[in-house]
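WARN retry 2 of 3 for item q-0093 after timeout on previous attempt; input resubmitted unchanged.
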Amino acid sequence: MRRIVQSKKLQNVRYDVRGPILVEAQRLEAEGHKILKLNIGNTAPFGFDAPEAILADVAHHLPHSQGYSDSRGIYSARTAVAQYYQAKGLRRTTVDDVYIGNGVSELIMMVLQTFIDDGNEILVPAPDYPLWTGAVMLCGGVPVHYRCDESNGWNPDLEEIEAKITDRTHALVIINPNNPTGAVYSEETVRGLVDIARRHDLVVMADEIYEKIIFDDAVHHHAATFADDDVLCLTFSGLSKAYRVCGYRAGWVMISGPRHLATDFLEGLTLLANMRMCANVPAQHAIQTALGGYQSVKELTVPGGRFYEQSKLAARLLNDIPGVSCVEPTGALYCFPRLDPEVYPIADDEAFVIDLLRTKRILVTHGTGFNWPEPDHFRLVTLPNVEVLTEAIGRIAEYLETLRD
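OK item q-0093 returned
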């Protein structure tokens, strides 16, 4: 009989956040071991509950959410998103500029499927959220990684980006605040990125899902606010992280800039939206309530708040480990520490995190899983409370001590 195999389109597609390391963790759990999973930014398992107003409104609308909605999303949700960006200075934003999706992940896939022809090059940061690289490949494109500079707070290297542009380059992906580094880009950096897109006639794809999770004096700058009317900008965001409803899968993409030049693209995006019928309707009812109500995330991102204190603690404890350095995050929910190759000569960082998992029952993600070119980083989720986080990083420190010995 003929073997049934996966499509060749998947040959180079990876998503190591849930890859072999998670399979190994599940095997260990099946044997009865308790694994602390610090590989995914899933808020619910760590005691972060959704605002009660969101739960109440979703429940209230359930009896009226049994049918399909407009494929672009329910009107109230799209209006709320449009008004949100109007308040951010993008006053021309209308309800027709907004598409609601089952999380940002679905919308990234839809946009790239609509946009990419075989061989198109898309500039993607390194490190990146690996869905971007995988989705570009799956759609027939070529991800070209531009390096973010660890010595400069993980801000992108603008000169390197410009040097990598060819006549096949079609778009520039910006992840700000950044996953996995926790960097929040300066205004100068965001302006510089948009200026590059302007000079080379590129579409900007701005992943801003962590825009509300920023610390101290960091300021998030929407790329679209600098794009004006001459750079098409697709802004992705949603409720998952800031409103602690990862499972609702309520995200959106907002289109700004020269829409008159993108009518064919938008027709294609509407076609794909129609083909998937619509996003989850009950979850869409959370969007208006979330964006228009009390912003409870602020309680978490200031001194004394859990997001803030846990991020600061994690960076401090990691930097206390000999041979480990961690740029302190200014946003998001992660640390991306570096292991000094002179102290820890690691050749295979996936093998490193699997051995850490087996030895200390701590699940993290290796840096090359985020398309970082060297095996000298790993990503740690900072969601556990301070006691659990202290214990977890303590176990990592113990493991690294054995490597030094």
